[in-house]
Specification:
With 81 residues, the chain is an all-alpha fold. It has 3 helices and no strands. The radius of gyration is 17 Å and the shape is elongated.
Amino acid sequence: MESKELMLKNSSFVKTLLMLFVVLGHAVDFWNGNWFKVYSPVFECKSLAILSIWLNSFHIYTFTLVSGYIFAFKMIGGGVL
């Protein structure tokens, strides 16, 4: 039982890290010109644009995967179903 609790704790840590990646990805979009096409940003940063592309390649998908894993773990492992 202790290993299951450790797995859930590790999954919660990964989910928290991915939530921070989501926030960082949305915050970076203000400076790379991909967020709002009507006006271009005053200061564009190419390195932040590369960071945004990298974060957008995985953070939404893995956040959904880990959230689903935690939900299934709590529903099935917790004896609710």
